Known about the structure:
By secondary structure, this protein is of the alpha/beta class. Helices cover 44% and strands 11% of the residues.
Amino acid sequence: MPDVPDASPYDALLLLSFGGPEGPDDVVPFLENVTRGRGIPRERLEEVGQHYFLFGGVSPINAQNRVLLDALRRDFAAHGLDLPVYWGNRNWAPYLTDTLREITRAGHRRVLTLATSAYASYSGCRQYRENLAESLAALTAEGLEPPRVDKLRHYFNHPGFLDPVADGVVASLGELPAAVREGAHLVFTTHSIPDAAADSAGPEGGAYVAQHLDAARLVAAAVRDATGVDHPWQLVYQSRSGPPHIPWLEPDVCDHLAELRAADAPAAVMVPIGFVSDHMEVLYDLDTEALAKAEELGLPVVRSATVGADPRFAAAVRELALERAATERGGCPERRARGALGPSHDVCPKGCCPARVERPAAAGAGSPYP
Length: 370
Ligand SMILES: CC1=C(CCC(=O)O)c2cc3nc(cc4[nH]c(cc5[nH]c(cc1n2)c(C)c5CCC(=O)O)c(CCC(=O)O)c4C)C(CCC(=O)O)=C3C
Ligand SMILES: [Fe+2]
């Protein structure tokens, strides 16, 4: 008789994502939701709106999440894990508050959250926790008694995240012309954030860049093991917004491609390590803009796959959920993680990834919703 996995005290898993428009009429209201109170220049918003209109006003992110949802449910069922999976977004339907209301009405009391962002930062972690707190407040105001909500630890260095990324890079190298393959550079790319946000990311600061560097190093090592070739690599940034006088993480991916060309690099693989699935940043900023730049430069470039709904990632989510459940029951489960940083913290401490203006944040120390 195989072991029945024990998720107690948890009784539901919440897939928490960004959300995106599903048609042209959604684009402007979606952007208004995203940018409310954030001081993003009007021109930047119009520009980003155009990226969505170029794809019929449809972001790929919701379809990606539906596939992930399905993969998680199938993986849980196949392993006898009885943990219902719900999906809610911060910025578009299905909205987080509606999903948490459904979870509350179904009688669930302990919810574990999987955010579709693998790294620490204000935008990638605390902002999700602030939105959880807002939704819990809204439900409380409706007279409901919402469940306790926790968040899974960062998974950037989990084998179930790293292995699919590494396989994607190996596959992309295989798509490059044989003559330039061996000398190809690996261009790991992630969302730029303000320098100030990078400095204060995580419990001790600096976690956003440190986590990306470790993940990139581990993937580059896995690629070397698979191909026998030590490809040079670098971490670069994309999708910068905000006013130009505020410093954000650099170099930009397109500038880096130009530098590679100038240095006579024969080819490159762009590895969108900062993104869990094919978001608009991948489809537009990389596949449209950066690949056009590469073409203009005459540099052969291929973009490698995101993790998406890879079965190894779904299995990693199951493993992380069971790990956290065991920890909550007072046990000491194995906590798998590769690299120099070790497994990330389970509970964000009070000052983790601080916002410019402090707001209540759930699923961490100091949450008003214990
Ligand atoms: C670190 C990070 C992630 C990765 C972690 C995670 O995945 O959460 C991420 C993801 C995403 N960002 C997304 C979309 C947008 N982000 C914006 C604005 C911003 N992002 C920022 C950072 C991040 N963003 C920042 C510092 C800003 C500036 C304003 C602010 O401080 O908030 C804007 C406004 C326009 C603009 O300024 O570009 C849009 C439309 C979508 C949906 C894409 C789709 O539809 O597929 C996704 C997954
Ligand atoms: Fe963003």
